[in-house]
Protein 1
Amino acid sequence: MDFRSARLAVLQLLGALAPTARPALLQWMRTTRDFDEFTQDNNDIMLKSIAEELRNYLPLETMLPSEHLALQKIKQHPEPTVHVDAFLYDEDFIDSLCEEGKMSRNYCMVCGSQQTAPLGFISHSFSLMELKFIYHHVLPDLSGKILVDVGSRLGTVLYGGYLYSSALQLYGVEMNEDFCQLQEMVIKKYQFTDRIKVLHADICTQGSLLQNADVIIMNNVFEYFLNEADQARAWEYINHNIRKQGSLLVTVPSLEESLSGLQTNIQLSTWIEEVPLNYDVYPEKDMDREALEQIHLYKIL
Ligand SMILES: C[S@@+](CC[C@H](N)C(=O)[O-])C[C@H]1O[C@@H](n2cnc3c(N)ncnc32)[C@H](O)[C@@H]1O
């Protein structure tokens, strides 16, 4: 159907509607998110299709049996917490899983009683909205630049960088081999091989990659995956190797928060300068402001 016929069909439909129902339909058309799937650009659709594909390979909690320490740490959380990957499961998807009884947003505080409290949710990946915020509003034009995602997991930062930026090369470094294989599968299938490379390695063996990078992304890399002594050592390594003047470091949460409670000799004031971000770039109804405010940008001095 071409545009003229579609427009006519919509007008005819409105004309045929009971006049009392018309305001409600028009209001729904003005405000609904049901049209989102028709208005997203191709890159969003491609990322959603990657998420759909990855959901078939991973359990609902998106944690693998090989992630011993992370599984243990989540269990020890003071409040009951579930892991839901924000790239694989957006808010609408979680709502539908809750409706089907496959997931709950609440837990029972006293076993057998009706008293419930909200469950804590942890995501180990950026959501589509966070990726778009980073590439459209946090980072400058990346033409000719090298980007490194420390702990690339499902590869979301790499695919987002391929589709939403002109970065010359996007490197992911991931210590979990199973996740590296999943990333390789996506990179081949979607033909991202010319600009994305994944290294199965501990970031603490990748000094020269970090030294040459123009942009380094660190989304909650160590907290759930290393014990405190190893976290401190890894941060010292990062601090020692990310030294290229003017290069950019994007972190979640802030460096202050990540380093608090760890024994390190890192002097933030001589290493980095924080670049303020504008978090008000999306209409309120579309955004999870709390999640965006966790994103911080630093320039290396
Ligand atoms: C929270 S996920 C980040 C996922 C991804 N960067 C994103 O934003 O969507 C952190 C990942 O870092 C990996 N990781 C933790 N310590 C690492 C290390 N020392 N070297 C390489 N990867 C590491 C973990 O296995 C985990 O998959």
Note: The chain has two domains: 42-122, 128-300.
Protein 2
Amino acid sequence: MAKVKFLVGSTYGNAQQMADEACEELNQLGHQCEVFNHPCIDDVIGEDTDVLIICSATIGEGDIPDNLLPLYSQLSDQSPLLPHVKYAVIALGDSSYDNFADGGRQMNELMHELQAVSVQEMLLIDACETPDPEEAVLEWIRLLHPKL
Ligand SMILES: Cc1cc2nc3c(=O)[nH]c(=O)nc-3n(C[C@H](O)[C@H](O)[C@H](O)COP(=O)(O)O)c2cc1C
């Protein structure tokens, strides 16, 4: 059983919904999960953090949504090292835009720089190409579960 924190970046609610459903699934699989809609650095650097799952859409021109941006800035500025933390990323976007899914990709890069340990390949949810995003997320979560 792992303590899992979902860190959400969402403007219109899609990423929020995916995080809520993923959280419920992992809770049912026996983990202890919580969703943070306005995460800050204190939610991340505490001793009680085993696993971070970043669930972020992209807004503007490849930007991180406003509710996740403060965390990104705090982590970039303070650069706390997180080698004891496992992480994985769900990145939502739309491939008809340039900078496809860059919000999630930027978070992924930052976690890598902070030496957090990636436990599963990033899940890309493309509004143009992923017919059933919920099923894609749940499948990905079930694969992730034994690695936590
Ligand atoms: C104004 C606007 C700008 C967007 N810019 C991008 C972008 O640069 N890259 C991308 O991959 N998706 C982009 N998207 C698509 C969103 O990331 C996608 O629709 C996502 O599912 C929205 O999630 P949310 O409801 O959690 O905000 C944009 C959507 C809107 C409405």
Note: The chain has a mean pLDDT of 97.
